[in-house]
Write a structure and sequence with these properties.
This protein is about 50% helix and about 15% strand. It contains 26 helices and 20 strands. It is found in: Membrane.
Length: about 850
C-alpha cells in the first residue's frame, strides 16, 4: 500500500488585524512528477493545484458570462459571481470540494498568480489612458465630473459622521465608514470607458461626456486618496509620516515621468510604423512594470498603483501602446484576472450576514453614496442643457462600478480596514446596482435617435446648380486615389461647386477613449494620429487647390471601434448636411483581378451606414481604373463611365450623380436603359423624368451617348451586363430594384446584399471595371431640422479636441421651406441663413467655414 504524505498543516495565529491562518507546507511539494501512477494525489502539489484552479475558474466564469450576457452584464460581474459561487456562499459549503480544490495550502499561490495578472491588467488600463486629455476637457465636463464626485462624497461623509451619533455602532465600523464614502464617490475612467465600449456607445454624445467627466472624477478621487493616506499615516505613527509618504509618492511619479517616459518614447520611435516590437523591448517594459510595482509596494502603496502610473506614461496607440495591449491583455485579462475575483469570493459568505445596526448603517452609507452620485450627475447635466432622458443615462453610467472599484474593496479587506461583512455588502450592492443600470442605459439611450427619422436632400432633388456636399470615408491610404479621382470626375465648377468632407477612419487600438476631431484646423494636434493622416489630407488638399474656387475640403479623423464607427459617419453627415456618403468596398482587388484582401469589419460598417445614415450612400468598388488619375486629369484617353438604368429611386439617384459628370472634358458618359420587351411601345410622356432630363442636357454636354436595350428576361439582362466589360471603366448603378422579369432569378445567389443583386453581379471577378453602387435616402422622412437634432450638450465637447458643432452659434441646416439659399456663380460665394446663424463659404479660399 502506498503511503500518502501530508502536504501541509494549518492553524490559527494572531495576525496584525485579526486571527489569521498559518500554513506550513513541505518545500518539495511543488511538482507532482507523475505521482498519479504511484497512487498519489497531484492536487497535493502546488503547481498542478494552481493550474487546475485556473482552468476551473476560467470555465466557470465563461459559463456564467454566457448566461448573463443577454442581460447586458459585463465580464467583471461574471467574475465576481463566479467568485461568490465558488466560495463559501456556493460550492464552498461542500467540505470535500473545498478541501480538494481550494485547500488552504493552495490559496496563497493562486492569490500570488492572480495578483501578478491583476498588476499587468492595471498596467494595460494605464496604457489606454491619454493623460493629455485632461487639457482638452471643457468647462462643463469639469463641472459635471466634479459634481459627480463632490455630492456623493459630501452625502456619504455627512452620513458616516452622523451615523455614530444617532446609532450604536462599533468603533471598527466607525473607522472605515469614511473610506466607504470616498470609494463610492469614484467613477474611474477605465471602468466608464469599458462600460461604454461594451454597450457600444463609446463615441456617442453621452459617451464622450461620460469619458471626460470620469477623467475629472479620477483626478478628484486620487487627490482625496492621497490626502486620506497622509492623514491616516500621520494619525497612526509619527506626524511626519504623512508628509513623508506623500513626498515618496511624488518622487516616484517624478522619476517615472522624467526618467522612464523618455526611455519609452525612444523605444516607440524605434518600432516600425507597420511592424511589431522586438521581444527584448517587450521584456524590458514588462520588467519595468514589475520594478514599478515593487517600488510602489515598498513606499506603502499597492503594487498595481506603480504599474498603473507607468502605463499612463507609455505612448498610447500604435506602435508601442497597441502592441503592449495586444501582447498582455488577452492572457492576463482572460486567464489570470478571473482568479483575482474568485479568491475574493472564497472568504465571503452571504448567508452569514447579520441584521445588526452596524450592517444597516454601512448599507445606508453605501446607498447614499450611489444616490448622491446619481443626483449630482443628473442635476449638473440637466443644468448644462442635456435632455432629462440623456442626463438620466449619463447618471446611470457614472453610477456603474467595475474592476477598479472591486480591487479597491479587496485591498481594503485584505488590509483590515473594512470588515468581511462590509466587504460583502459593497460587492453585493455593486453587482445589483450595476446589473440594473446597464440594461436601463441600453433602453434609455440610443445614439442613432439623434439622426433617425431625418434626411438631407438627395442629389436627385437638389438644384442642379447647387453645391453638392459629399462625405468620403477613408479606411486606408489605398482608398485615396480612387476616391480623389471619383471626385475629380464629378466635375466641380463655379456653377456647380462641391464641398468635400473627408473622414479618416481608424480602429481604436491601445486606447480607451474614442476620438473625433476636425483635422483641417491647424490648432488641433493629437499625438495618437499617425503620419497617414497628413498623407490623406495632402491628397485632398491638392484636389482643392487644383479646383480652387469651386471645391472645398474639410478633414476629420475618427478613432473608434468598428462596431460603432457608423455613428461618427452619420454624425458628420447630419452636422454638415451631406447629400451623399461615399464608402469604399470591403474587398480590395489584386493585379490579377482576384480578391487581394477582405475586411469583414469594414463590411459591417458599410451595412450599418446603409441602414442608418440620413442621406444617400455610394459604395465604391475599385478595380484600379480610378486609381490612375492621368486619364481623368490629362485626357490621354477618355475615361468611360456607363450608367445602367433599370428604374426606381436608387437608379434615379445614381443617374443624378452621373449627370454631375456631364461636360467633363476627359470623360465620356454612356446611359444604358434596360427595358422589357412589353414596354417597348410605351408613350413618350410616360418616359421617366430623369431619362428625359438626361436627354435634354446630353445634347449640349458632348461625349454623351444614350442606348435603349430591350430584353425579354434575366438572361438578356445578363448578356447586356457582360457586353459592358469591353467599353466601360466605371459603371454606376442603383442598389435596389423592384422584382421584374428583367431580374428574375439574378438575386438567388447574391453574396453581398449591400450592393444589391445587380451590383453584386458586377462586383464579381467576371468583370474588370470599377463600380459605384448608389442608394437614395428612403422617402417619408422630414428634412433635417437642426434645432431639434443638435443638442445643447454639444457644448460639452468644446475645447476638448473632440469634434462638436455649437448649436447656438454655427449650425448648418438644409431647410427647403425656411432657409434662404443663394448662389453667386460669378464670385463663388455661397451663403445660407438659418434660424441660428449665418453660414458663409468663400470658395476662393478653398475651405468651408
Amino acid at each position: 500500500m502506498v503511503q500518502r504524505r501530508v502536504s501541509a498543516t494549518a492553524g490559527l495565529v494572531q495576525g496584525r488585524h485579526r486571527q489569521e491562518l498559518f500554513i506550513c507546507q513541505f518545500s518539495d511539494m511543488t511538482n507532482s512528477k507523475g505521482c498519479i501512477w504511484s497512487g498519489g494525489d497531484p492536487l497535493s502539489f502546488s503547481l498542478p493545484l494552481v493550474l487546475a484552479q485556473l482552468i476551473f475558474i476560467f470555465f466557470v466564469t465563461r459559463i456564467i458570462f454566457g448566461l448573463i450576457r443577454p442581460l447586458k452584464q459585463s465580464m467583471v460581474s461574471a467574475q465576481l459571481i463566479a467568485g461568490i459561487f465558488l466560495g463559501q456562499s456556493g460550492l464552498g459549503r461542500f467540505r470535500s470540494y473545498a478541501a480538494t480544490m481550494f485547500r488552504p495550502g493552495g490559496k496563497l499561490v493562486l492569490q500570488t498568480v492572480a495578483d501578478i495578472g491583476f498588476l499587468f491588467h492595471v498596467f494595460v488600463l494605464g496604457i489606454q489612458i491619454d493623460p493629455t486629455m485632461i487639457r482638452r476637457v471643457g468647462r462643463n465636463a469639469v463641472l459635471i465630473g466634479a459634481s459627480s464626485f463632490a455630492l456623493p462624497f459630501a452625502v456619504g461623509g455627512i452620513a458616516s459622521l452622523a451615523l455614530p451619533v444617532f446609532s450604536d455602532i462599533d468603533d471598527a465600523t466607525e473607522h472605515f465608514l469614511p473610506f466607504i464614502a470616498v470609494i463610492n464617490s469614484a467613477s474611474f475612467f477605465p471602468v466608464v470607458t469599458t462600460l461604454l465600449s461594451d454597450l457600444k456607445i463609446l463615441n456617442s454624445e453621452i459617451g464622450r461626456i461620460a469619458t471626460l467627466a470620469s477623467l475629472v472624477n479620477d483626478v478628484c478621487i486620487y487627490a482625496a486618496s492621497i490626502l486620506f493616506t497622509a492623514v491616516d499615516a500621520s494619525a497612526s505613527d509619527s506626524k511626519w509620516n504623512g508628509a513623508l509618504s506623500v513626498a515618496w509618492i511624488g518622487a516616484f511619479v517624478i522619476v517615472v515621468v522624467f526618467a522612464l517616459r523618455p526611455l519609452l518614447k525612444h523605444v516607440a520611435r524605434n518600432i516600425p510604423v507597420r511592424g511589431s516590437m522586438k521581444e527584448s523591448q517587450f521584456l524590458m517594459i514588462a520588467a519595468l512594470a514589475l520594478i514599478c510595482g515593487f517600488v510602489a509596494q515598498t513606499i506603502g502603496q499597492p503594487a498595481a498603483v506603480g504599474t498603473f502610473i507607468l502605463g499612463i506614461v507609455v505612448p498610447e496607440g500604435p506602435p508601442l501602446g497597441s502592441s503592449l495591449v495586444y501582447k498582455i491583455d488577452y492572457f492576463c485579462t482572460g486567464l489570470l484576472l478571473p482568479a483575482k475575483f474568485a479568491i475574493s469570493g472564497l472568504s465571503m459568505n452571504i448567508f452569514s450576514l447579520g441584521k445588526g445596526k452596524s450592517l444597516l448603517g454601512v448599507e445606508a452609507v453605501i446607498l447614499l453614496g450611489y444616490l448622491g452620485k446619481f443626483t449630482g450627475t443628473l442635476v449638473a447635466a440637466v443644468f448644462f442643457g442635456v435632455s432629462f432622458r440623456d442626463a438620466t443615462s449619463l447618471a446611470l453610467i457614472m453610477c456603474c462600478k467595475g474592476i477598479v472599484e472591486a480591487s479597491y474593496y479587496i485591498g481594503l479587506k485584505d488590509s483590515g480596514i473594512i470588515s468581511n461583512e462590509a466587504y460583502a455588502l459593497l460587492l453585493i450592492t455593486m453587482l445589483v446596482i450595476t446589473g440594473i443600470a446597464r440594461p436601463l442605459i441600453c433602453y434609455l439611450y440610443e445614439p442613432s435617435r439623434r439622426y433617425s427619422g431625418c434626411r438631407t436632400k438627395s442629389i436627385q432633388h437638389l438644384d442642379p446648380n447647387a453645391e453638392l456636399r459629399v462625405q468620403v470615408c477613408i479606411h486606408s491610404e489605398d482608398n485615396v486615389p480612387s476616391i480623389v479621382n471619383l471626385l475629380e470626375a464629378t466635375n466641380a465648377s463655379r456653377r456647380r461647386p462641391i464641398a468635400v468632407f473627408v473622414l479618416n477612419l481608424m480602429e481604436l487600438k491601445g486606447s480607451a477613449a474614442a476620438v473625433l476631431v476636425p483635422t483641417h484646423k491647424r490648432k488641433v494636434k493629437l499625438k495618437s494620429l499617425p503620419s497617414r493622416t497628413e498623407h490623406i489630407s495632402n491628397a485632398f488638399n491638392i484636389l482643392a487647390q487644383r479646383n480652387r474656387g469651386f471645391t472645398a475640403v474639410q478633414h476629420f479623423t475618427s478613432i473608434v471601434p468598428y462596431a460603432t464607427m457608423h455613428d461618427d459617419i452619420c454624425t458628420i453627415a447630419v452636422d454638415k448636411g451631406v447629400n451623399i456618403v461615399i464608402l469604399p468596398f470591403h474587398k480590395q482587388w489584386a493585379i490579377a483581378g482576384t480578391v487581394g484582401a477582405n475586411f469583414p469589419a469594414i463590411r459591417m460598417v458599410n451595412q450599418q451606414v446603409l441602414h442608418k445614415v440620413p442621406c444617400s450612400v455610394g459604395i465604391l468598388v475599385d478595380r484600379g481604373q480610378l486609381a490612375d488619375n492621368t486619364q481623368i486629369l490629362f485626357g490621354h484617353s477618355l475615361f468611360r463611365v456607363t450608367m445602367l438604368y433599370l428604374g426606381g429611386p436608387n437608379d434615379n439617384e445614381a443617374l443624378a450623380y452621373c449627370c454631375r459628370m456631364l461636360g467633363h472634358p476627359h470623360i465620356s458618359v454612356n446611359l444604358v436603359w434596360l427595358r422589357h420587351s412589353s414596354d417597348v411601345n410605351i408613350e413618350k410622356k410616360m418616359e421617366p423624368s430623369m431619362i428625359h432630363w438626361f436627354k435634354a442636357h446630353s445634347k449640349v454636354a458632348g461625349r454623351v451617348s444614350f442606348k435603349e436595350q430591350v430584353v425579354h428576361d434575366a438572361v438578356g439582362t445578363t448578356q447586356v451586363l457582360r457586353s459592358l466589360d469591353d467599353c466601360c471603366d466605371l459603371c454606376i448603378v442603383g442598389r435596389d430594384h423592384e422584382q421584374s422579369e428583367l431580374t428574375l432569378g439574378i438575386n438567388e445567389w447574391i453574396e453581398c446584399p449591400e450592393l444589391g443583386f445587380i451590383g453584386d453581379m458586377l462586383a464579381t471577378s467576371d468583370y474588370s471595371f470599377s463600380l459605384l453602387v448608389v442608394q437614395q435616402i428612403p422617402p417619408g422622412t422630414e428634412l433635417i431640422n437642426v434645432e431639434s437634432l443638435k443638442p445643447v450638450a454639444g457644448s460639452f465637447l468644446s475645447g476638448s479636441g473632440i469634434y462638436s458643432q455649437q448649436s447656438a452659434t454655427s449650425k448648418y441646416s438644409q431647410q427647403s421651406a425656411t432657409s434662404k439659399y443663394s448662389q453667386h456663380s460669378a464670385t463663388g460665394k455661397y451663403s445660407q441663413h438659418s434660424a441660428s446663424g449665418k453660414y458663409s463659404q468663400h470658395s476662393g479660399f478653398g475651405s468651408l467655414g
